């Protein structure tokens, strides 16, 4: 194990030496578990399985990267981190995929996540019982909290000493908060003047160097600001520098560029005995005793639908959800340097409950910085300007700051994923996603737009405008106790199969009004622990 | 572009990886086209000249677009009522060329684009995609960023 942060040319970065000497298995070896996907769902699971001595192979469609060597401070060249196989978007509010919400590579979407890791509010897990809307989770907050704490500790989450919302914390965040960037400071000041409470956010990025098992010391954040196209120092706690090295040290094999296409079942079709995948142009099958599926809210249901598995409820692909993520931009007199610092460093959860009953569920507000190409893209997509108007707007780029909402989204029969008749570059049916906001989401967006606009007006912003988007892809393989209404049970096990578990955010019964990464990781560990306990009980 | 690139390449706060990517952009400009015909290139030059007036990145934008389309590298999604990118661009460029034949002056062409961008048609979808792509590619160049006083390449800490 390399215990030292490597210093080259004064730019600190993590060592990726853990790959040397990684254990490997043959396809013909019957491993205990094949994990499909290495993001926030798959990585914690494989780490835990490995640490209990199980034989594990993780299959990842994307490549393995060395952040220091492979991640440039250039947005377009970093599109290699996004899932670019085409998805077809339909409905009244078609979802933007690609760089908006989909990852590919060892580490999955965490390679480009913003690193916001707020905890879910206890009430949001039983929204239906409390409000009659949405869907209850079969798991309550008390069952999750140990895991939330464990993940925060393992990742080295930076956050405030006292977080002002949600259930009282038993422990402070492991590290002090990251410094507020200029957009955050502008938002903080304006919110304070109109009575909206704010706090430094919880970020899975290091405000101080932190010891990471399997990696050694990870350096503190350098405020580079390009978190959403890959952190090149390893300060952001993406899976490639946290759970995956730990898993590899514990004997897990991570097989990159291995695209899973289906399963081999036993005689009575109740048990998976092998996972089919394509690697180097060859069709292969990895033999296994169990499968953990963690390919995300689109690829997990796609794989199940094209395999014709786990769908006796008819719910695979149903209840697709996406967080309303409206952004409000403003231009300020001062230089905001929107490309520096962690993009989202300030949060407000004051609107997790509607002040006057305008909506059920809730939303949070987050300050946002932005990289130049992303801003140019949003400007043209959102405002449809070109020519001198565009050049003028872009000339003011270093004076812009944004706020975005992240709102709850309720499951609906109208929103679903199905297989298109079109084939993708691998010859597989493209996923086709139908999505339209319901009345509750529309009311929430309207409310948030008014609030965010007021904040920027108070902050002295000129030229305030909105960019409509959604964030995250959630649902599609619902978790629940009723096999006729859900795909997996409360322990992540598919109702229809003896040895298939799902550990990503496709199992979320409702979207929750927080960024999902922390909850995904906590659920993944919880499901894995139950799986291991069962194995031990049986043996 | 060279002087601006030299400025970035000589900066000790910029990582080797970033420098290599920026240098590869320099090498890519003006490479042979595989997807667009010469007539399509003419139409693209006119459109990009309207989107980004007075900028000299047009040939780089076209070579990047050409490479993406030739290799089928899209943005990872499309609205279902539009065809795949290759077809969208072929049909869109044909229609744009026909419309540009009818209106020759720059103000007229600007009005034409403005009018169509706001519509819910296949052609509007094409124009919107072309505009977004052209602008994204333009602002990925160091020279374009330095022009707007943005110096984002520092990989070493310079504060939030």
- The count of helical stretches of chain B stands at 8
Most extensive contact: A-B, 67 and 53 residues
Oligomeric nature of the chains: heterodimer
Radius of gyration of chain B: 17 Å
Overall mean confidence score, pLDDT of chain A: 95
Helical/strand content category of chain A? alpha+beta
Q: What structural class do you assign from the helix and strand content of chain B?
A: mainly alpha
**SS field, number of helical segments of chain A:** 11
Global shape of chain B: elongated
> What is the number of strand segments of chain B?
1
End-to-end separation of chain B: 28 Å
The whole-number mean of residue pLDDT values of chain B reads: 91
Number of strands of chain A: 22
Write a compact overview of the structure shown.
The complex is a heterodimer of chains A (539) and B (160). Chain A is of the alpha+beta class and 539 residues long.
Write the layout of secondary structure elements.
The complex is a heterodimer of chains A (539) and B (160).
Chain A: E1 6-8, E2 11-13, E3 31-36, H1 42-51, E4 56-59, H2 67-70, E5 87-90, H3 127-131, H4 141-155, H5 182-193, E6 199-200, E7 210-212, E8 216-218, H6 243-249, E9 253-255, E10 259-265, E11 272-279, E12 282-293, H7 296-307, E13 321-324, E14 327-331, E15 346-348, E16 363-368, H8 372-383, H9 387-395, E17 400-407, E18 416-423, E19 429-434, H10 439-458, E20 462-467, E21 470-474, E22 500-502, H11 517-538
Parallel strand pairs in A: 3-4, 3-12, 4-9, 5-19, 12-22
Antiparallel strand pairs in A: 1-2, 6-15, 7-8, 10-11, 11-12, 13-21, 14-17, 14-20, 15-16, 16-17, 18-19
Chain B: H1 2-9, H2 16-28, H3 38-51, H4 58-70, E1 77-79, H5 85-102, H6 106-117, H7 122-138, H8 142-147
């Amino acid at each position: 194990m390399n215990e030292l942060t490597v210093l080259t040319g004064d730019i600190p970065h993590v060592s990726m030496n853990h790959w040397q000497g990684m254990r490997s298995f043959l396809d013909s070896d019957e491993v205990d578990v094949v994990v499909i996907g290495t993001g926030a769902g798959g990585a914690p699971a494989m780490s835990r399985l490995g640490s209990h001595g199980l034989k594990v192979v993780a299959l990842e469609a994307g490549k393995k990267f060395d952040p220091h060597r492979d991640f440039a401070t250039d947005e377009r060249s970093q599109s290699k981190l996004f899932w670019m196989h085409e998805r077809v978007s339909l409905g009244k509010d078609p979802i933007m995929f690609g760089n908006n919400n989909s990852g590919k590579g060892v580490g999955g979407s965490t390679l480009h996540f913003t690193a916001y890791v707020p905890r879910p509010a206890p009430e949001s897990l039983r929204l239906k019982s409390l409000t009659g809307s949405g869907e209850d989770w079969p798991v309550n907050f008390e069952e999750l909290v140990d895991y939330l704490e464990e993940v925060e500790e393992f990742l080295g989450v930076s956050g405030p000493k006292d977080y002002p919302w949600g259930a009282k914390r038993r422990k402070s965040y492991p590290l002090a908060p990251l410094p507020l960037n200029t957009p955050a400071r502008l938002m903080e000041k304006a919110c304070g003047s109109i009575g909206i409470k704010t706090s430094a956010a919880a970020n899975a990025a290091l405000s101080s160097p932190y010891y990471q098992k399997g990696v050694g010391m990870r350096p503190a954040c350098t405020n580079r600001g390009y978190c959403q196209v890959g952190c090149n120092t390893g300060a952001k706690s993406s899976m490639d520098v946290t759970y995956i090295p730990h898993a590899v040290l514990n004997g897990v094999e991570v097989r990159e560029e291995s695209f899973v296409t289906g399963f081999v079942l036993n005689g009575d079709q109740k048990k998976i005995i092998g996972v089919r995948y394509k690697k180097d142009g060859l069709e292969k099958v990895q033999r296994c005793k169990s499968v953990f599926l963690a390919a995300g809210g689109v690829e997990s249901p796609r794989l199940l639908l094209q395999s014709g598995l786990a769908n006796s409820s008819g719910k695979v692909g149903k209840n697709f959800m996406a967080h309303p993520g409206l952004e409000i931009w403003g231009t300020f007199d001062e230089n905001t340097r929107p490309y520096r610092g962690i993009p989202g460093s300030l949060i407000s959860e004051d609107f997790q409950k509607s002040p006057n009953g305008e909506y059920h569920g809730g939303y949070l507000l987050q300050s946002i910085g932005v990289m130049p190409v992303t801003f140019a893209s949003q400007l043209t997509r959102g405002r449809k300007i070109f020519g001198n108007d565009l050049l003028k707007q872009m000339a003011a780029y270093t004076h812009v700051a944004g706020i975005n909402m992240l709102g709850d989204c309720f499951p609906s029969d109208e929103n679903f994923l199905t297989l298109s008749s079109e084939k993708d570059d691998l010859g597989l049916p493209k996923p086709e996603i139908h999505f339209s906001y319901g009345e509750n989401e529309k009311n929430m967006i309207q409310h948030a737009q008014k609030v965010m606009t007021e904040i920027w007006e108070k902050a002295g912003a000129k030229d305030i405008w909105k960019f409509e988007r959604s964030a995250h892809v959630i649902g599609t393989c619902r978790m629940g106790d009723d096999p006729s209404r859900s795909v997996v049970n409360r322990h992540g096990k598919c109702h229809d199969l003896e040895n298939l578990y799902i550990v990503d955010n496709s199992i979320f019964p409702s979207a929750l009004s927080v960024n999902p990464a922390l909850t995904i990781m906590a659920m993944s560990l919880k499901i894995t622990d139950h799986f291991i306990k069962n194995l031990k009980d049986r043996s | 572009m060279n002087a601006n690139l030299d400025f970035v390449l000589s900066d000790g706060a910029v990582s080797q990886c970033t420098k290599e990517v920026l240098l590869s952009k320099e090498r890519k400009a003006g490479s042979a086209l595989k997807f667009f015909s010469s007539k399509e290139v003419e139409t693209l030059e006119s459109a990009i000249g309207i989107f980004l007036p007075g900028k000299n990145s047009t040939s780089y934008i076209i070579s990047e677009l050409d490479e993406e389309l030739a290799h089928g590298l899209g943005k990872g999604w499309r609205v279902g009522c539009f065809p795949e990118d290759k077809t969208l661009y072929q049909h869109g460029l044909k229609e744009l060329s026909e419309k540009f034949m009818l209106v020759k002056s720059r103000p007229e062409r600007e009005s034409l684009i403005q009018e169509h961008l706001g519509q819910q048609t296949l052609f509007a979808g094409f124009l919107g995609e072309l505009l977004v792509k052209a602008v994204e590619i333009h602002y990925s160049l160091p020279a374009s960023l330095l022009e707007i006083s943005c110096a984002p390449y520092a990989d070493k800490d310079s504060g939030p």
